[in-house]
Amino acid sequence: VQLQASGGGLVQPGGSLRLSCAASGGDFSTFYWAWYRQAPGKQRELVAGLRNSGRTNYADSVKGRFTISRDNAKNTVSLQMNSLKPEDTAVYYCNVGGSLWGQGTLVTVSS
What's the pLDDT tens digit per position in 18-39? Predict the structure, then answer.
C-alpha cells in the first residue's frame, strides 16, 4: 500500500497549483481522504478533507481558495489551490483513512 503525492513547486503569490495523490495496493474508494500541511517550525495541520459521501471540510485559512476532489476509478485525490499566499508555503501531505501517509510535496509561494 502506497501513496504518491505530486504537483508541488514554486509559484508566485496569487498563482495556482494542483496537487495529486495516487494510492496503490488497495481500494480506498470508501475511505476519508485528506490533505495536511506542515510549515517550518509549525505543527502539521489539516487543510482539506473529503468523505465518501462527498462531504468536504476545509481549514478556515483556505476556504474559498482550495478545492479537494477525488477520482475513485483512479484511486486519486487532488487539491486545487488558487489565490496562493506566502503563508501557504509548506510541505503538503496526503492521508487516507487517518493512518496512511504520502511522502509530502513542497509548495513554495514566493515572488
Answer: 999 998 888 887 889 999 999 9
